[in-house]
Amino acid sequence: MADLDLPSRQGFAPDAALPTGLPGEIPLTITINGERRDLHVRPWTTLLDLLREDLHLYGTKKGCDHGQCGACTVLVDGQRINSCLSLAVSRDGCEVTTIEGLAAPDGALHPMQQAFIEHDAFQCGYCTPGQICSAVGLVKEGHAHSAEEIREGMSGNLCRCGAYTNIVDAIGDMLAQETSQEAAK
Amino acid sequence: MNRFSYARPGSVAEAVREVAAPASKVLAGGTNLVDLMKYNVERPAHLVDVTRLPGLKAIEETGEGGLRIGALVTNTALAYDPRVQERYPLLSSTILAGATAQLRNAATTGGNLLQRTRCYYFYDAATPCNKRVPGSGCPAIGGVNRIHAILGTSEQCIATHPSDMAVAMAALEAVIRVSGPGGERDIPIAEFHRLPGDTPERDTNLGADEIIVSVELPAPRFATNYTYLKLRDRLSYAFALVSVAAALDMDGGTVREARIALGGVAHKPWRVPEAEALLKGVVPERGAFSLVADRILEGAQGFGGNSFKIDLAHRAILRALSQAAAGTPQSQTDKRIQ
Ligand SMILES: Cc1cc2nc3c(=O)[nH]c(=O)nc-3n(C[C@H](O)[C@H](O)[C@H](O)COP(=O)(O)OP(=O)(O)OC[C@H]3O[C@@H](n4cnc5c(N)ncnc54)[C@H](O)[C@@H]3O)c2cc1C
Ligand code: SF4
Ligand code: FES
Ligand code: FES
């Protein structure tokens, strides 16, 4: 993260309290989309900036950078989180899945990606990687069974284009498929 | 974000030593701290990442029939723990009323209690704010204060504590266990958060050299007649303007004990035990609830933008007590208020 060279203003802790000299980069071992990476990062790098700026995985989007939009949603150890509010160093040893890691190695789309296409669940597409990662997390959590529960469970993903209706339909379709597969077993 | 040094201690004792460093901060889920660091509101010199501390991610039974929740248990893990859902459904429901699935997956029990106010001026380092810079003034008084407090305010600060979870924990009389250089001590939740008074920069009574290790819930008593009613500007993903955690321990048709805690109205979860006592031995009905609401809101003061909260809180208390008495808790999915 760029360290802003801001003029001193009200509200800053006294700079005397800051360490002198730049603390070194910190070793970080993290598995991203199945690939183990041994990296060095500065402690103030967020997981989102690590993905985009250092690893050039631009699928994960930065919307607000403050946990308020969900565009940066990724799966960490299978759970959806906002990568903009997570420091990369604190995720040492974790497994991260981004939108780039959802499709099969042969390129076959993840069923959730397919469902989004079939239901026309996006317009500009900016929120879509976050929506899809979040939806994958939601299905895995297993707490949503109705359209209402999908809407509540997906409330952390805003869509400025307003594709919500089709997003809920796409996820509902996936859930129905999962349920019928479970029933068939 | 400013530059800082980083440590990832492997034991609570080591973490306590690390937080003793000047201008250090504990990092848990990061969902509040990292946000505030991006706004240059928090500028720690040293970050102590406690996420790897052993033993703080468990929910265990206590000898007294309660539950001990490790400080690192996530909001998600806590809300969906079967023991919590069964014995403390008020807590589960309250947590699910807060934030979003993504945030709850990262947010921890300790971090949630220590999250800071969402006061707009506190967040804007270009404006004065007594909480951020003691003595600089409080622009919320006489400024934009729709989300601010109506109870327990001071001339220095009218901020609210934004946590939902803490409101249920206040109603359930949770006890917070902290660890510091002198060992461990317990702080009842009623004494954990502070009123702003002349020291609005201090949100809680946690020492700068202490960390939260766990939160203990006493044996369950309010698993049937409870509700968490959260009123806000959007139906989801918004902080409470007013919220009410209500729990009744019923003895046939009358109330044995009532607990009522309010969120969004003060610098801490707001409880008035004398008001709760008015319900003791009483048949729960609207007339009695109204007296309770009057008592809870005694001395409430609006600041213009937030004056609507006084009436809103009164009605919310009535409605929450009706929901609790009927055993029909507010759904956190279907937001229609019954
Ligand atoms: C967009 C958005 C919406 C939200 N909506 C809601 C909502 O509706 N309701 C609600 O209740 N909350 C809401 N939240 C807040 C969220 O619940 C908190 O950010 C979260 O609970 C903080 O937990 P954390 O583990 O991420 O804490 P951190 O951000 O890691 O830490 C928060 C503070 O606690 C300190 N800390 C953490 N753990 C310890 C410990 N063990 N010992 C000592 N100090 C510690 C840190 O130093 C820091 O000061 C929202 C947040 C965002 C970004
Ligand atoms: S209400 Fe408190 S936090 Fe907000 S500006 Fe005033 S002093 Fe700061
Ligand atoms: S970019 Fe992370 S929530 Fe908006
Ligand atoms: S598709 Fe444009 S923001 Fe969602």
Automatic annotation (TrEMBL), chain A:
<protein>
    <submittedName>
        <fullName>(2Fe-2S)-binding protein</fullName>
    </submittedName>
</protein>
<dbReference type="Pfam" id="PF01799">
    <property type="entry name" value="Fer2_2"/>
</dbReference>
<feature type="domain" description="2Fe-2S ferredoxin-type">
    <location>
        <begin position="26"/>
        <end position="102"/>
    </location>
</feature>
<dbReference type="GO" id="GO:0016903">
    <property type="term" value="F:oxidoreductase activity, acting on the aldehyde or oxo group of donors"/>
</dbReference>
<keyword id="KW-0001">2Fe-2S</keyword>
<dbReference type="InterPro" id="IPR052914">
    <property type="entry name" value="Aldehyde_Oxdr_Iron-Sulfur"/>
</dbReference>
<keyword id="KW-0479">Metal-binding</keyword>
<dbReference type="InterPro" id="IPR001041">
    <property type="entry name" value="2Fe-2S_ferredoxin-type"/>
</dbReference>
<dbReference type="InterPro" id="IPR036010">
    <property type="entry name" value="2Fe-2S_ferredoxin-like_sf"/>
</dbReference>
<dbReference type="InterPro" id="IPR002888">
    <property type="entry name" value="2Fe-2S-bd"/>
</dbReference>
<dbReference type="InterPro" id="IPR036884">
    <property type="entry name" value="2Fe-2S-bd_dom_sf"/>
</dbReference>
<dbReference type="Pfam" id="PF00111">
    <property type="entry name" value="Fer2"/>
</dbReference>
<dbReference type="InterPro" id="IPR012675">
    <property type="entry name" value="Beta-grasp_dom_sf"/>
</dbReference>
<keyword id="KW-0411">Iron-sulfur</keyword>
<dbReference type="InterPro" id="IPR006058">
    <property type="entry name" value="2Fe2S_fd_BS"/>
</dbReference>
<keyword id="KW-0408">Iron</keyword>
<dbReference type="GO" id="GO:0046872">
    <property type="term" value="F:metal ion binding"/>
</dbReference>
<dbReference type="GO" id="GO:0051537">
    <property type="term" value="F:2 iron, 2 sulfur cluster binding"/>
</dbReference>
<keyword id="KW-0560">Oxidoreductase</keyword>
UniProtKB/TrEMBL annotation, chain B:
<dbReference type="Pfam" id="PF00941">
    <property type="entry name" value="FAD_binding_5"/>
</dbReference>
<dbReference type="InterPro" id="IPR051312">
    <property type="entry name" value="Diverse_Substr_Oxidored"/>
</dbReference>
<dbReference type="GO" id="GO:0016491">
    <property type="term" value="F:oxidoreductase activity"/>
</dbReference>
<protein>
    <submittedName>
        <fullName>Xanthine dehydrogenase family protein subunit M</fullName>
    </submittedName>
</protein>
<feature type="domain" description="FAD-binding PCMH-type">
    <location>
        <begin position="1"/>
        <end position="222"/>
    </location>
</feature>
<dbReference type="InterPro" id="IPR005107">
    <property type="entry name" value="CO_DH_flav_C"/>
</dbReference>
<dbReference type="Pfam" id="PF03450">
    <property type="entry name" value="CO_deh_flav_C"/>
</dbReference>
<keyword id="KW-0285">Flavoprotein</keyword>
<dbReference type="InterPro" id="IPR016169">
    <property type="entry name" value="FAD-bd_PCMH_sub2"/>
</dbReference>
<dbReference type="InterPro" id="IPR002346">
    <property type="entry name" value="Mopterin_DH_FAD-bd"/>
</dbReference>
<dbReference type="InterPro" id="IPR036683">
    <property type="entry name" value="CO_DH_flav_C_dom_sf"/>
</dbReference>
<keyword id="KW-0274">FAD</keyword>
<dbReference type="InterPro" id="IPR016167">
    <property type="entry name" value="FAD-bd_PCMH_sub1"/>
</dbReference>
<dbReference type="GO" id="GO:0071949">
    <property type="term" value="F:FAD binding"/>
</dbReference>
<dbReference type="InterPro" id="IPR016166">
    <property type="entry name" value="FAD-bd_PCMH"/>
</dbReference>
<dbReference type="InterPro" id="IPR036318">
    <property type="entry name" value="FAD-bd_PCMH-like_sf"/>
</dbReference>
